[in-house]
Structure formats: C-alpha cells, structure tokens
Design goal:
The chain has 722 residues and is an alpha+beta fold. The protein folds into four domains: 37 residues, no CATH class; 153 residues, Penicillin-binding protein 2a (Domain 2) (Alpha-Beta Complex), CATH 3.90.1310.10; 339 residues, DD-peptidase/beta-lactamase superfamily (Beta-lactamase); 135 residues, 2-Layer Sandwich (Trypsin Inhibitor V, Chain A). Helix content is 29%, strand content 24%. It has 21 helices and 34 strands. The strands form eleven sheets. Strands 4, 5, 6, 7, 12, 20 and 21 form a seven-stranded mixed beta sheet that branches. Helix 3 packs antiparallel against helix 4 and helix 11 runs parallel beside helix 13. Its main location: membrane. It holds the Pfam family PASTA. Keywords: Membrane. This is Penicillin-binding transpeptidase domain-containing protein.
C-alpha cells in the first residue's frame, strides 16, 4: 500500500511539474484556455457622422436609443429569487403591443414559434430605435424577461427640412447579424462611406460572474466616428423656404413645388426644398419619387429662358429696346408662334415686349441675333450638359436645335429641357456682373476624430458668355418687369428692396400621345429673380406645378407669395441694406484685416456702423461681414483680434451674427430658437472661460422679420476685451 500510494503521489507530482514547466495540457496552452474563458470583449459603438449647416447647426446626427429583447430561457432565472425570463406570453404580448409597432398576435407568435433552446427573441424593426421615453414606460410595467440594450438612432431634429437633399439612413442587418445604419437616399447615401464610423472595442478579464477583475487592465481601442458633412445651407433661410412652401401647399395644393436660394457671388446653395416632402426620421410622406428634382429632373422652363436670350442679344449688340415690332403672331415655315393673348398689343417696342413676356418679340429678336448664335450662347450658359454640382445623378437636359422652329421655341423656353440647377448657374452670370459660378452644396468634410478638414470646397468660376456691362443691362431690364406698368412681374416686388427677374408659364407635356395638357392652372409657373438688383446678394428660383386656383387667383400668385416671403425674410436676416427705404444711409465696408482695431473702430463709427472688437485692442485678423458688403447705418461689424473676450449685449443680434461671434471668440454659446436675440444667460461684460456655457434665446422668425432698432446717435462703439 505504501509503495502504491507513494507511486501515485510521485506520478501526480510529476504531472503537475510537467504542466507548470510546459504551460500546456493535452497540447493546449492553459493561458489561452483561461483567456478564452475569462477574457471579455465589449463593442464601443462609433457614431455615424453628422450633417450640419454652414454654421454647424445639426441637420442629421446619431442619438441614443434602445433595442428591445425578451429573454425566454429559464436558465436566466436560475439561482435568482426574481423572475428574469418571460413567464406569461399572453400578458407580455398585450403590454408590449401598446408601445411598439407590432400587434399582440404578432408578438405572441414570435414567443411561441421560438425554438425550445432559444435564450431570447428580438422584434425586428419594431424593437429597434426605441426612444428613452418609450423604454422608461415599458420598464415601469415591470415585465419579467424584458431587457433593453443601448443602441444608436438617426435623428433629424428639423423634421421636413431639405429632405430630398439630405435623404435618410436607417438600421439594416449586415453580415454576422450585426445592425448598421446605412444611407438609403440623398446625401446620407452619397456620402455613406464618409459618414460611417468604425466601432472600437474594450478587452478585459472577468470572474465567473462576468465582473471585471480588480487587478487587470482594460485594453481599449477607441471608436472612430464618421466624418462630418458641412453644407452650404443656411438653416434659417432653409426654414424660410420650408415655411413658404408649407403655406403655398396648404393654400393651393399643387402637384409639385420647388425652391432654390443661392448666393450668386459664390454659387453656394443656401436653401433647397421641394413638395411633396417627407420626414427623414419616420419617412412619413415619402412617395415613389425619390428624386431631388432640382438636380435630377428636367422640364421645359418657359419664359424664364427669355432672360438668357436677351443677354445674348445685348452681348452681340443686337438689342434695341426702342425699336418697334408687330406683336401678336409670327410665322416660321408651317408653324405660327403667338403671344399669350393670341392677338398681341399692336406695334410695341422690344422693351415693352420683354416686359409683357411676348413670344413674338423673341422671334424678331432671333432674326437680328441669328438662331445658331443663340444656341452657342445657351451652350456656354451650360444648358444641355451637367453643371458638375457635388450631388449625384445630375441630369443634363436636352437642348433642341436641329431645326429652325426648335431653335425659335427654345428662345422662349419651349421644347428644350433644363434642370433648375442649370437655370440657377446661368443666372449667376447676370447677378454676379458677368461671372458665372458653379452651384455647390458641400462646404467641407471634417474628421471629428482629428478635428481636421478632410475636404474643402471653394467657389468655382466658369467661363461666362457675357460681360459685366451686359449683366448690368440685363438686370435693369429684369427690374423693369416688376416696376413697369406692362410688366408681368408686378406681384414679385419686395418691401424695401429693388428686385428683378422673369416670370415663366410653361406648358406641361402629356405623358402619352404627345402634345401638351391644357386647362386652368395646368401649367408650370415659375419665377427666377434676384435682389437687391444693383448688387444682387440672393438669387431665388421658384416653381409651382398645377396649383388648384380659386376664382380670382392666377398662377403667379403662389410663386410670388413664395418668392417675396423668402427673399424679404432672407435679406433682412442677412442684414442687407434696404434699397428704397434708406438709400442714403448705407455704405460699403472695406477690408480691415491687418489694420489696428482703434483705427477701424474710428472709421466705422464715422460711417454710422456699430463696430465690435472681439478680443483685446490690436491687429484685426478677421472681420464679418466681408469686405465690399453694403450695410445700413447702425449695422454691427465684428472685428476679431487676439486675447481674452468678454460678452457684449447680444440683444437684437441675428442668429448669424451670434454664430460668427461664437466662431471668433471660441466661447461655448448655445442657441435656443430662431430669428433675433431677446435674452442671454450672462450679462454684458461678464468674463467667461472657454468651458462656461452661455445660453442665447432668439425670437421666432415670423416675429422678428422687422427692422431691428437702431442705436442712439451718440452711442459709443462697443469694444469687447479684457
């Protein structure tokens, strides 16, 4: 017995010694087996990149949500006094059906059809993207076995806001049954690769109950969030457009509507929307049409095209505004072109013909210009080819020019097709003194993980077919369509600003059988206009298709209501000096960068401006508004220097001015509302550090569309500094 037990002891000792020396058992490493058993890994979810407006205001972002599961396995309750699995299928299904988008029978069927060894079940789309409020409400029901896991949800805080431009993204199962947010439409789809982040992970060792061991380190691989897409859109101007389209939709119930607002000096798109529209978060209102019609849809533009025929004639010295022609009709081979009233207005001048939007005037003007020459100009304006905007699926349109009759009808916007973005690009040449700018909507792409700009878009000037002098002459004539007693654009006059533009009433081709549809309101009504006309700061294109017109209403009513509302609100918001109200109280500011703030303050004060130095007195390194901007007396001019910043009195400031101050100062300024400032959380002169939040309250845009109060004449310039 002694020998037997002694032998067993030495055998066991030898085995232990072997394991200790080799670290293996049956050829397997013990350390690896221990790691496999006790090493845990948790996924650190990356945020999908944000889409923001030009001032950094959020348009689309990720927010915290929850994923719902139901634990069915009795193993979950083993060793616990509390039930941790679903015990009553019927009651659980009935309660959950009140909170998620599944009826009781569907939930019950999911419970009962689960395999016997299933640990848990999920609820597909209905069980994902659950809000915090809904999760809290379900938790209060205290249903056994119902658990929540943190998840990401795509949030569109502005609702129906540039929906066909921004598009939407939604959770989708990928390989390995993981769920990832995928862009399905618009910018969300086009820039899905840039917006998609890379998940991180955390590795750590636990005990048998899953609790991290005290003496072990957690190895963290940080997630890489998706890139931020910053647009040229201005949230406030976009809201002006959305509100105007909503009112027109309610009043006229058109088949379609669209509006685009552009800075003609740069080509930056400040607003873009269409109707019908939809909510990107819920997809409510989304139809079978997924096209961003400003870029992807073509149409016959109608008489708005006449401004480019006029521009070509002026450039070629073929325009004589005081020459007469016989209005009414014009015959070309076997076709007869007629004016809108079919009989004309007798012998009238070419200027009056343009103001009345006479088709026949274009025919006689084409005789002077030459139809082949006109087509060459239209090609140089960019019609019949893509403008190269930074958006997908751009349509080129078709420039009909095979026959003399086609070239004639093209001169007044019939037959040939264009996209709205082509019309806008061509109009920038007129608004921007002969410099044609490429429209663009992506300002920059930013990597938030490194806080660096990955891609920056700059204004791009294209070769223009017209000169500065021609552009100015065209603008004068466009202004006369609004001010002349014969003008078709009288309804498009702005309060306080001189505007110019061209109306359009285009026929709509039939979908089958050829020809055009007819009947009251069965047209595409449009207006392409700019203001202030002597130096346009905004260019707006509005289209309304087949509005339902009540007695006494005309097709120009919905287009004019949208145009005037958007332009008046936007020009005031941008602090553009009114033309007709204060023609003598405005002045143009210069480039002050590199000069001393004391000198600039004195100069601006003499001009009647309100200079504000952001920082200590010293060299001006940045300014807002930019040089050569025309401002009214009492306007705020921000001058950035260096050094610590104290707070001004923000009362009456526009949102844009506050955002510029925030950018210049680097302070944590948080905005509530839209429009103009009415309240601030810290008073003027308060000393604040970078981390102190300052809450600024603004009025509703509709309440603040008024001229802001001017300062007293003897008010001292405000210098913000230590």
């Amino acid at each position: 017995m002694l020998l037997l037990f002694g032998g067993l002891f030495f055998l066991l000792f030898g085995r232990m010694l072997q394991i200790q020396v080799t670290g293996q058992i049956d050829g397997r490493a013990l350390a690896a087996m221990a790691d496999q058993k006790y090493l845990k890994e948790s996924v650190l979810r990356a945020d999908r990149g944000k889409i923001v407006d030009r001032a950094g205001e959020v348009i689309a972002t990720d927010t915290l949500s929850y994923r719902l599961i139901a634990v069915l396995s009795e193993k979950a309750t083993k060793g616990s006094k509390k039930q941790l699995h679903v015990t009553d299928f019927e009651q659980t299904a009935e309660v959950l059906s009140k909170y998620i988008d599944m009826d009781k029978e569907e939930i019950l069927e999911r419970f009962e059809s689960a395999s016997p060894d299933a640990y848990q079940v999920e609820f597909g789309k209905a069980g994902r993207s659950i809000s915090n409020e809904t999760a809290d409400a379900i938790k209060k029901e205290e249903l056994p076995g119902i658990r929540f896991f943190e998840d990401k949800k795509r949030l569109y805080p502005n609702g129906n806001f540039a929906s066909y431009l921004v598009g939407f993204a939604m959770p989708e199962k990928t390989e390995g049954d993981s769920v990832e947010t995928i862009g399905k439409m618009g910018l969300e789809k086009t820039y899905n690769k840039q917006l998609t982040g890379t998940d991180g992970k955390a590795d750590f060792k636990t005990d048998r109950w899953g609790i991290q061991l005290r003496d072990t380190k957690k190895n963290i691989q940080a997630p890489q969030d998706g890139q931020t897409i910053q647009l040229t859109l201005d949230k406030t101007i976009q809201n002006f457009v959305e509100d105007a389209l909503n009112r027109a939709e309610k009043e006229y119930s058109p088949e379609k509507m669209m509006a685009v607002v552009v800075n003609p000096k740069t080509g930056e798109i400040l607003a873009m929307s269409q109707r019908p529209s939809f909510h990107p978060g819920t997809r409510e209102g989304l139809t079978e049409n997924w096209l961003n019609e400003a870029v992807e849809e073509t149409f016959e533009p109608g008489s708005t095209m006449k401004m480019f025929t006029l521009a070509a004639a002026i450039q070629e010295n073929r325009w004589d505004p005081n020459a007469y022609y016989k209005s009414g009709q014009y015959k070309i081979y076997d076709r007869t072109i007629r004016d809108v009233n079919r009989v004309g207005w007798g012998m009238i001048t070419f200027l009056e013909g343009f103001q009345r939007s006479s088709n026949v005037s274009m025919a006689y003007l084409l005789e002077r210009l030459g139809d082949q020459t006109l087509i060459e100009y239209f090609e140089e304006f960019g019609f019949g080819k893509k403008v190269g905007i930074d958006l997908p699926n751009e349509a080129p349109g078709v420039l009909l020019a095979n026959f003399p009759s086609e070239r004639l009808t093209t001169s007044y916007g019939q037959g040939s097709t264009v996209t709205p973005i082509q019309m806008v690009q061509a109009a920038t040449a007129i608004a921007n003194d002969g410099k044609m700018m490429t429209p663009y909507v992506i300002d920059q792409i930013i990597d938030p993980n490194k806080d660096e700009v990955v891609e920056k878009h700059e204004p791009e000037e294209k070769k223009s077919p017209i000169s500065e002098d021609t552009a100015k002459q065209v603008r004068e004539i466009l202004a006369s369509t609004i001010t002349s007693e014969h003008g078709t654009g009288k309804k498009f006059a702005l309060d306080g600003y001189d505007a110019g533009g061209k109306t359009g009433t285009a026929q709509i081709p039939k979908t089958t059988g050829g020809g055009y549809i007819s009947g009251n309101g069965n047209y595409l009504y449009s207006f392409l206009g700019m203001a202030p006309i002597d130096d346009p700061q905004l260019l707006t294109y509005v289209l309304v298709q087949k509005p339902k017109l009540k007695e006494g209403k005309y097709g120009s009513d919905p287009t004019s209501e949208i145009f005037t509302s958007v332009m008046e609100s936007s020009l005031k918001y941008l602090n553009i000096a009114p033309d007709s109200k204060q023609p003598d109280a405005s002045s143009v500011i210069q480039d002050y960068q590199g000069e001393t703030s004391e000198k600039v303050v004195a100069e601006l004060t003499e001009q009647g401006m309100k200079p504000i130095v952001v920082g200590q007195p010293g060299e001006v390194v940045q300014q807002s508004p930019a040089a050569k901007t025309k401002l009214t007396k009492g306007s705020i001019v921000l001058l950035k220097t260096s050094g610590e910043t104290a707070l001004p009195n923000f009362t009456g400031w526009s949102k844009k001015q506050v955002m510029v101050f925030k950018s210049f100062s680097g302070l944590d300024i948080r905005l509530n509302g839209e429009g103009f400032v009415v309240k601030q959380s810290l008073s003027k002169g308060a000393s604040v550090s970078d981390g102190d939040p300052i809450v600024i309250t603004l009025q509703d845009p509709e309440q603040s569309n008024q001229t802001k109060p001017e300062p007293e004449p003897d008010e001292e310039p405000e210098i913000i500094g230590g």
